[in-house]
Amino acid sequence: MTERPSRREDPVPTRSDVHDVVAARLEAAGQRYTTSRRKLVGVLARAGRPLAIPEILAVEAEFPQSSVYRNLVVLEQAGTVGRILTSDSARYELAEGLREHHHHLVCLSCGSVTDVTLAARSEQAIETAIDEVAGVTGFQPTGHRLDILGVCARCAAG
Asked: pLDDT of 53-68, one tens digit each?
């Protein structure tokens, strides 16, 4: 079994450090950390949950929608923003390493996304399964994310 440190043990930058990390990742990707990108990262950092573009625009009404789309693409390509696909759209959050390690419950009915943190033994079981697959396939994993698809409690009750 390949020994990798648990993603849960990775240090998570403080909010002020997040901007330094994002700036460095953008620079490495040949991009600038513009005022608009800084504001967008701030919105995602403060939200603490994945946001759809209309939710981002509701927080920062001054953003042109086309600018939000373009900047999210650049931030995603630089490894600073993650995208979660839902049944009707996408939601965005700070990427792994800029937030604590977690997974998502994605409702196929309403499109809601709920962050969940698994117990250490569950994370270890996932890591063990990844190691088994890697051993068989020769794939070299660097991390994992798990999106659990289904129906949320609100939609199931309605």
From this structure: 999 999 988 899 999 9
